[in-house]
Write a structure and sequence with these properties.
InterPro entries: Rieske_2Fe-2S, Rieske_2Fe-2S_sf, Rng_hydr_dOase-A. Keywords: 2Fe-2S, Iron, Iron-sulfur, Metal-binding, Oxidoreductase. GO terms for molecular function: 2 iron, 2 sulfur cluster binding; metal ion binding; monooxygenase activity; oxidoreductase activity, acting on paired donors, with incorporation or reduction of molecular oxygen. This is Rieske domain-containing protein. It comes from Pseudonocardia asaccharolytica DSM 44247 = NBRC 16224. Helix 5 packs across helix 7. The longest helix has 21 residues. About 25% of the residues lie in helices and about 25% in strands. It has 2 domains: about 140 residues, Rieske Iron-sulfur Protein (3-layer Sandwich), CATH 2.102.10; about 170 residues, Naphthalene 1,2-dioxygenase Alpha Subunit, Chain A, domain 1 (Alpha-Beta Complex). The chain starts with a helix and ends with a helix. It is of the alpha+beta class and about 325 residues long. The chain has a 6-stranded antiparallel β-sheet with strand order 8-13-12-11-10-9, with helices on both faces. It has a 4-stranded antiparallel β-sheet with strand order 2-3-4-5, with no helix packed on it.
């Protein structure tokens, strides 16, 4: 086994199975029965909206899809594009919608025909963010630090858009690429950044009222932009007129997928998650954040494991390196 694959196995043992891991936002599964695929380390999980409107998380019934063992092409640390997305070695998809509350055929690879027999996984929410854990980790509030209180305040905002993006770096460096793309100092090593008022953030809705005029709940008092990140895989951004959550999902040793969800004040969009172009302001917001994602990807290509990221530093302490 290569050194890189040994490190992946160690990360699964000491990080992904021992921490609260962010897997998405509640708005991805708004309807009863909707299901969110959630790979955590080497384990295939899902989160589903129950009949009572609450969330239930569990292990997938088909951990390796239709395979009895892990095929050679799936054991090299690079998640594959497989029709069995319940497999822990395949790429996650976005949420799977139920058919008027009834499980679809695709859902059966996650929940089977008797979901009550599946092993449950602890699940919690903080604001819109969904977290699961496979062990007995420290309290979620302790793990999230300042990001937890900021995320909890997102309840007054409306989810207006969501899209996926990619970075070409290890998951431990993804937060650095995002912070720098948004204007934070390179390699600052901080979990929280405050950017000065007037910082040109591409995702900002041009012409909207500033925080002092409209009472945006999370923007700094000076009308600037605040950035948070928390171990192992979540980033939160608050501008005067909107907020964004970013869930980092490892897809290969040197690559990640980002699930970027955008939130605005309740009067800022027509309603719901908008289709591209359906609401001019929300579409402009999404376009701005796609520019952020492109800049982050460009920066991620020059990221180095020795750059001193706080996420990297904490991961190394857990891995014994």
């Amino acid at each position: 086994m290569s050194a890189a694959l040994r490190e992946l196995a160690l990360e699964d043992e000491r990080i992904w199975t021992r921490a609260w891991v962010c897997v998405g936002v509640e708005q991805q599964i708004p309807g009863l029965g909707d299901l969110l695929p959630a790979t955590v380390g080497h384990h295939g999980l899902h989160v589903q909206r129950g009949p009572d409107g609450g969330l239930r998380a569990g292990f997938n019934v088909l951990q390796y899809g239709s395979c009895w063992t892990i095929p050679a092409q799936c054991g090299h640390g690079h998640k594959t594009n497989c029709p069995y997305v319940s497999c822990a070695h395949s790429l996650d998809t976005d949420a799977v919608a139920a058919d008027d509350g009834v499980p679809t055929r695709q859902m059966r690879q996650f929940i089977g025909f008797n979901p009550q027999k599946l092993a449950d996984v602890p699940v919690r929410t903080v604001g819109p963010l969904i977290f699961v854990t496979l062990a007995d980790p420290p309290p979620l509030e302790e793990q999230l630090g300042a990001l937890g209180a900021a995320a909890a305040a997102l309840g007054g905002l409306r989810h207006v858009a969501r899209f996926w993006a990619e970075l070409d770096c290890n998951w431990k460096l993804a937060g650095d690429a995002l912070f720098e793309a948004l204007g934070a100092p390179p390699r600052s090593g901080r979990l929280v950044e405050r950017l000065a008022a007037g910082t040109d953030v591409p995702g900002t809705m041009r012409g909207r009222p500033r925080a002092a005029d409209a009472g945006a709940p999370l923007a700094p008092d000076d009308g600037g932009v605040r950035l948070w990140r928390a171990f192992p895989n979540v980033v939160l951004v608050c501008a005067p007129d909107h907020a964004a959550t970013v869930v980092v999902k490892p897809t290969r040793i040197d690559g990640v997928a980002l699930v970027i969800s955008l939130f605005a004040r309740r009067g800022d969009a027509a309603g719901g998650v908008v289709e591209e172009g359906a609401d001019e302001e929300a579409a402009a917001l999404a376009a701005g954040w796609r520019a952020v994602a492109r800049e982050a990807r460009a920066r991620s290509r020059s990221a180095r494991m020795g750059d001193g990221s706080p996420i990297l530093t904490h991961a190394r302490s857990l891995l014994g390196g």
